[in-house]
Specification:
3 copies of one chain form a homotrimer. By secondary structure, the first copy, chain A, is mostly helical. Chain A has 17 helices and 3 strands. The longest helix of chain A has 28 residues. Chains in contact: A-B, A-C, B-C. Chains A, B, C: Keywords: Ammonia transport, Cell membrane, Glycoprotein, Membrane, Transmembrane, Transmembrane helix, Transport.
Amino acid sequence: LEHNVASRLRLSGLCVLLQILNILLFAVFVRYSPESSSSLCSLQLNCSRRNQDSGFQHPRFRDVHLQVLLGFGLLVAFLGRYGPGSVVISILIVSFAIQWAVLIQGFLYFFHNGKIYMGAPSMVSADFCTAAVLISTGAVLGRVNPVQMLLLALLEVILCALNEYILLSLMGVSDSGRSLTVHTFGAYFGLMVSRILHQPHMDKRRREDQQDTGHQPDVFAVVGTIYLWIFWPSFTSATTVHDNAEPWAVLNTYFSLVASTVATFILSLVLYEESTPRMVQIQDATLAGAAVMGMAGEMLVTPFGALIAGFLAGLISLLGFRFFTPVLHFRLKIQDTCGVHNVHGIPGILGALLGTLLTLLATADAYGDRLELVFPLVAQGSRTAVDQAFLQLCALPLTLLFATLGGCLTG
Amino acid sequence: LEHNVASRLRLSGLCVLLQILNILLFAVFVRYSPESSSSLCSLQLNCSRRNQDSGFQHPRFRDVHLQVLLGFGLLVAFLGRYGPGSVVISILIVSFAIQWAVLIQGFLYFFHNGKIYMGAPSMVSADFCTAAVLISTGAVLGRVNPVQMLLLALLEVILCALNEYILLSLMGVSDSGRSLTVHTFGAYFGLMVSRILHQPHMDKRRREDQQDTGHQPDVFAVVGTIYLWIFWPSFTSATTVHDNAEPWAVLNTYFSLVASTVATFILSLVLYEESTPRMVQIQDATLAGAAVMGMAGEMLVTPFGALIAGFLAGLISLLGFRFFTPVLHFRLKIQDTCGVHNVHGIPGILGALLGTLLTLLATADAYGDRLELVFPLVAQGSRTAVDQAFLQLCALPLTLLFATLGGCLTG
Amino acid sequence: LEHNVASRLRLSGLCVLLQILNILLFAVFVRYSPESSSSLCSLQLNCSRRNQDSGFQHPRFRDVHLQVLLGFGLLVAFLGRYGPGSVVISILIVSFAIQWAVLIQGFLYFFHNGKIYMGAPSMVSADFCTAAVLISTGAVLGRVNPVQMLLLALLEVILCALNEYILLSLMGVSDSGRSLTVHTFGAYFGLMVSRILHQPHMDKRRREDQQDTGHQPDVFAVVGTIYLWIFWPSFTSATTVHDNAEPWAVLNTYFSLVASTVATFILSLVLYEESTPRMVQIQDATLAGAAVMGMAGEMLVTPFGALIAGFLAGLISLLGFRFFTPVLHFRLKIQDTCGVHNVHGIPGILGALLGTLLTLLATADAYGDRLELVFPLVAQGSRTAVDQAFLQLCALPLTLLFATLGGCLTG
């Protein structure tokens, strides 16, 4: 009991400290960007194509928020025992990580004259960062206490923002749906932390906990799946730079989701002794199908490509759960509470490879006017398609390296 | 047990087959329409009024998707026993039907030079088709296995697309909210299939199942009702051709929902021995109130018309449940698991009749500028209002005929 | 039993009466505004800044609806016993109150030549009014029967519309997020009704009921909280007159939510003997954090202001639950079923005071071009900032007076 009171007070104290720190930093550095408001209106008026900031629209912003909170909150909630409790912690993590990410990303991107001028776009970037934190959280859930989770969020936001800055701004990699910077980074960061924190005696208890899944999680899984279906395509296309490229990203993601769901049906009926797949599997398939479209979403020019990619992602994700998770668990001593490796890690890598392949094949013929929009540097002639593909490929090991080192440090 | 394994493998095999078929057909025929993306932007710029494709907006697209998945998925879920399981099957049906409907409708509408050039609008049409399939599914739920459901979807998508093509494109019928092509068609198709599949010995078991509704369904019904309220108006107005006509369709649908809900309260307190109506009844009333506004939504010029129509729809739907469902069940040997006849069938017909009446009364005086938008052919003088009304009326028996024959065949 | 039948028939009869009354009044008075449709389109085209009607956009309209139904419906639902039943009653109240509010507000605002010309904006105003009714309902829930609730809605809509008309139109108070006219008015109206209806013997029974909260409410609370997070910012900014001012209102509300959530964590860990706060507390904190931003949302020029305000609102709301509700209950004999005083009343007043303070500080320097948008009268020179602040301050006791007197009368 004593221990309990002490841990509550420690959590409470840490929250006070961090919140005061945030308020102070905001007071000193953050101001609203004076143009943020007017740019939103001018968007309606002249729809300038090449300006990322003005390409931002309010409804999309809300969709991303919805993703972060609902999608991942529910994902995390699917373990029966951690159900409502884990949602509460998720919301705390989100509350803190959003403020922190606005600050960190503000220092990297929007820092002028000693002030960060923020607008709605910086809020969207912060949401992406928060998503990566939540994915990592999924890997260690149930084995760390809230204080540790807050510290994890503190460090991961910094590293995630740094990784994103290097990839997107310095290297010019195209990763609009964040296959790499969110899914892959979040998954491997979480897995490394999980590896470091591995405690054999905790292990057994956890596996028992996992059994007592009641009926509750199914409700969450149903609602969660439906929302992923509806809002994920917007998430994937939230930062596609150009309004023109968006519809394809949305449609590609839908097709990928559809194919991934069918793949899950096929495989789950063969692999497991059940007459219908469980709802949670459908949810995972949906996530995997969406993660694989992260980078390639705006590049794919034919719908059947999305169908095939989604189909493969669905198959791989389920095979991973069946055969790879036990290996991970017993050989490498990495526990993966919510299966983030199969749902985010593998599909993220697959998506990055697919994006690289598509970049390699990018020619003016296939893309027409769109080439300029999807790969501006290639279209301007300052880079060849092969160079761009090489950079895209390089981004993958770089992200893995960042995630692994970061995870080790944090652990 | 053996039987169980065999049926699982059969379902799995069918899924593989259909998915591969879909991928192949997509690979051969379907390409993204090159204009789809640019038209979306030009919409913001010059808002051209008469072009259906450019009248499409992303948020509406998502709303329709949400409808299809959530609305009907939850509708189907309200039978306790089939709860989570039926949602899983619904999602499989949706996954397959969307791909299939894109293909079939593509062949009818968007087929040029051996390729289907698809964009976001064809996705919306596919969603409408999927909605009809889900309504039919509601009528036969619990009495057919997933393999039969997939075959039902396979056939119904073809017939539904054909019916829609004849009504909307060839006859020029105005049915923006799909009273006829989705609600009426789906309901009667499902009922006919249910009639053909009637097996007396199954009957008893089902009625027992129906009893064990726990607390769970109520949660679904609450969430489902709220979402229907929020998103149905967008569904009804998703394909209103002209941006100008939309707000009336939305407002009319809201008023209809409101009146229908009040009607349900009034009648359920009199008919049933309960102090408050059950949540599921409210949900049905909401659906009925929305279905009746399908065709007439954009035609009504006064709010009180919508109030009266919704009020009648609510009354009729509830009276149907009380007095007509038993007749249907024992005399005509049609089982209607989710009451689709009362919720979709009757209100759909009522909506079509109302639409006909309104078309008959359509004069340049009442509509002003809007006449040109709602009834373009009448405004251009190539048709009189009476002709248009006659065509609208003809569309009703035609749809019924299509649905009945199709249901027989499929059964 | 006899009593039960009689009360059901009375409710049913009242519904019939009110609905017929509504239909008749709509038939006589309400017509769609002919410009409503075209103004929506012209918005896209020339984005005129100073016209409130044309500043209306469809997605926002839906968000407000969602708020009203989901947010408050779920808020009300959190008492286990009244769970599904109270949602049903809420929907009846909403159905009636929306029609009634359209009428009453129509007479005040849109009455020309003996007709009310309504469009989408009048629907939004009606939704705000309905929200106030639902807040009041939360205070008396479980102690009044549905017939009394309908009568309460009947009277409150009239008073709320009158209050809003005086404040916003006659006095020119700026209250875009409705801190005063919705939150404060609704809370104190409900509390006064609750005071008048106080019956000592009912008291004990209620407290027992409150105990048997099962697992169910948690699901509702989770879903409710997530939705409040997502859609409340849109609610707050739904009627910000000028498109330009919106993004700040949205961002301020987000920051306020975030800070309020963290504050709840901090305090609930100290005050209560639990390792994590309960979901319902998080939900209340979210509401409080949003309510405080109602008036000040579009005025705040720095993000850290929103962080501090939200933090304070979260602290005060929780302290109120712990220390003030018992005082209210035993000393003042006011029962507050859902804690609306802490969640809506106090933060509403706080928000109004903050708004006054900010108005006082409003100078052309800090606001720049925005001054004209947020305080048009000040910018035009017809009022000084101090006058405006004085009026904002006067609006607070006026609203309290209206609410208290109205509550007494209704009781």
